[in-house]
């Protein structure tokens, strides 16, 4: 029985109006503009009228709409009504209700991870080199800026729903972080060609607290094997015991009697060429407690002007910037962050000292040593303008100098060599084993000045 277009679901009154049907028989009403159906559970009732269709459907009943008018359905929970994706064969839907399938979780995980990494890349670009606390984050291996976005994009490639958003997010992160990944694409350039006969061989190395702990023979073995014209050495001091002593310096002179020597604090420069000028760079804005702690703490850059002959002078800057954090302290303790802040207060004046002196130097320049700064760190932007990384003369696609200690991965380049435009670099490579004397690899350069 139908009343005003609505199915009542009860037998008709015996007054002769409407119609009666046998059990299980569907009786459609054909009043113009109105289609009304009483459907038994499990019965499909397509609407073909041109007006308004109204249906009461039992649970589980499918009621697709094919008419041109408006369909209104009272459906029990779980009933498919033909809306949205139901009419498209093979369409994918998330599971109904609060339970999520594994595809939803995979999509969320991949897109979420790509979004988080992009947000981190943006934050790193903004904060590295600007906020002292970010020095802790700067310890991230630079190669992560290449590996993470590529891994996310490759991992999402088989997933139809997530591959596009993940690829877009990963590509944006890769563009932001590629320059800080440490990958040396300039290695394909091959440097400045063959070295001329008067080229200068330079060896720069963090010695690892010189020969403390009985490392004298290993130290001098590395220095002799380098066979350089100029040595720029760092950490001429002892960390745990008193020294070096006068006898230590006498041994150095005896090992290299034909080389000129300049020593200031922890910095040692040896040169086959005469030293015209020796200048430890002053950092007047150092914290007072550091400035008064001795030359090892006060001076972190030693400039020496070398007479190469024929009117040519090369200014070398032997540099060792303070390390930014201490691996001996847990990040869950207050000392970890106190040390970072103190080291930041020591590093910044040294950057400024370099930035003041190099631009006013009229000679060709080489800045080399342990800068305790990886390619991922924004601190590299504090180097004086006009210097270029000697990495273009290296054959290594991922040059790394630390750590040379067994059991530690060699993922960081902390040691650098940078030159002014007048200097030609014909070869740049990192040394082999240090025979246990240091956790840094040495840098070998061959350069010339026209």
TrEMBL record:
Gene3D superfamilies: Endonuclease/exonuclease/phosphatase. The chain crosses the membrane at residues 104-125, 131-154. It holds the Pfam family Exo_endo_phos. Residues 16-95 have a biased composition (Low complexity). Residues 204-440 form the Endonuclease/exonuclease/phosphatase domain. Keywords: Endonuclease, Hydrolase, Membrane, Nuclease, Transmembrane, Transmembrane helix. One of its GO terms (molecular function) is endonuclease activity. It comes from the Bacteria. Residues 1-95 are annotated as: Disordered. This is Endonuclease/exonuclease/phosphatase family protein.
């Amino acid at each position: 029985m139908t009343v005003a277009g609505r199915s009542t679901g009860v037998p008709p009154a015996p007054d002769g109006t409407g119609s009666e049907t046998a059990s299980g028989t569907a009786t459609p009403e054909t009043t113009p503009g109105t289609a009304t159906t009483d459907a038994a559970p499990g019965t499909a009732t397509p609407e073909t009228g041109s007006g308004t269709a109204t249906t009461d459907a039992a649970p589980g009943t499918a009621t697709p709409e094919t008419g041109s008018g408006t369909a209104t359905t009272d459906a029990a929970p779980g009933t498919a009504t033909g809306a949205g994706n139901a009419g498209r064969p093979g369409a994918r839907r998330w599971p109904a209700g609060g339970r999520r399938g594994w595809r939803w979780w995979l999509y969320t995980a991949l897109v979420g991870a790509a979004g988080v990494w992009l947000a981190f890349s943006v934050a790193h670009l903004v904060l590295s080199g600007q906020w002292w606390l970010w020095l802790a984050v700067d310890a991230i291996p630079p190669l992560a800026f290449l590996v993470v976005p590529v891994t996310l994009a490759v991992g999402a490639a088989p997933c139809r729903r997530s591959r596009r958003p993940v690829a877009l997010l990963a590509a944006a992160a890769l563009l932001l972080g590629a320059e800080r990944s440490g990958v040396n694409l300039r290695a394909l350039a091959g440097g400045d060609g063959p070295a001329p006969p008067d080229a200068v061989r330079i060896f720069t190395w963090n010695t690892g607290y010189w020969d403390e702990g009985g490392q004298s023979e290993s130290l001098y073995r590395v220095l002799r094997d380098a066979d350089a014209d100029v040595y720029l050495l760092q950490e001429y001091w002892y960390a745990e015991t008193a020294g070096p002593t006068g006898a230590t310096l006498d041994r150095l002179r005896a090992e290299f009697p034909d080389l000129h020597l300049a020593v200031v604090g922890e910095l040692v420069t040896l040169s086959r060429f005469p030293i015209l000028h020796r200048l430890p760079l002053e950092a007047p804005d150092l914290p007072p407690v550091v400035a008064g702690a001795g030359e090892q703490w006060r001076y972190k850059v030693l400039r020496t002007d070398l007479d190469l002959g024929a009117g040519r002078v090369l200014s070398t800057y032997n540099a060792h910037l303070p390390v930014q954090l201490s691996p001996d302290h847990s990040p869950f303790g207050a000392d970890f962050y106190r040390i970072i802040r103190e080291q930041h207060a020591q590093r910044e004046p040294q950057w400024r000292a370099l930035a003041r002196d190099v631009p006013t130097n009229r000679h060709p320049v080489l800045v080399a040593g342990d800068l305790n700064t990886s390619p991922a760190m924004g601190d590299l932007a504090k180097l004086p303008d006009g210097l270029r990384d000697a990495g273009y003369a290296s054959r290594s696609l991922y040059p790394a100098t630390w750590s040379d200690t067994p059991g530690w991965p060699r993922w960081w380049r902390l040691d650098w060599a940078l030159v002014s435009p007048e200097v030609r670099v014909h070869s740049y490579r990192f040394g082999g084993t240090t025979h246990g004397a240091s956790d840094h690899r040495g840098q070998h350069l061959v350069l010339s000045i026209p």
